[in-house]
Amino acid sequence: MAGTKTPLTLLKSLRISSFQIPSFSGIPNTSVQKKPLLVYHSAFPPTVSASAIESHLAQTGVVTPQWRYTMYSTTHFHTTAHEVLCISRGKARLCFGGEENPERVETVVERGDVVVVPAGVGHRLLEDFHGDFEMVGAYPKGKSWNMCYGGDEDGEKAREIEGLGWFERDPIYGREGPAINVKEWRATRFAE
Fold first, then answer.
1. Do residues 79 and 100 touch, judged by C-beta distance below 8 A?
2. Coil, helix or strand for 91?
3. How wide is the angle at C-alpha 14 spanned by C-alphas 175 and 72, nearest 5°?
């Protein structure tokens, strides 16, 4: 590709974590579309900047960067869009699925990691290790995000997830990549 696209970890060397999280206490998690929560460990180099991430996402053309911020410390989820979180600074412990959920996922992410959060998956910040945690938040082109917290009023909104399309191209890698090959990656990664 033309331009100064940010170098990525080669797909064959990329370490991926994939999680299915059952619904819990009004949070749909991955139960609706059965698409896994994905963590791409060190997809970007550890020196990557937020500007370089935004440029890379724009060149890949799958998602649109919409903000730079930390993660909220209250569990929330989105029903109108899948979310791509690219870690641009710091290191943090995040919780996915709801903090009271016995099948929640707690993971540590740091600069260069990417998290693909399917619509409906509850997420929150548990710990910002150095006080400077920042992500670039991006959503599929043409989509906007909403905020849901798992209350009764969010039940109707959760039905919106059923109609959302999944990625036709990977938001980071383009024509190939974990998000478009979730079944293949899962089978390859966890087959014994």
1. no
2. strand
3. 90
DSSP assignments along 113-142, one per residue: -EEEE-TT--EEEEEESSS--EEEEEEETT
Identify each DSSP E strand in 23-133 by its residue range: 37-41, 63-69, 83-89, 91-96, 105-110, 114-117, 123-128
- pLDDT 10s digits, 72-125: 999 999 999 999 999 999 999 999 999 999 999 999 999 999 999 999 999 999
Query: pTM for this one?
Result: 0.93
Please state the φ and ψ torsions of residue 151, each to the nearest 5 degrees.
-80, 175
Give CA separation, 179 vs 2, 42, 62, 155, in Å. Answer: 23, 16, 11, 26
Our CA angle for 151, 144, 78, nearest 5°, is: 25
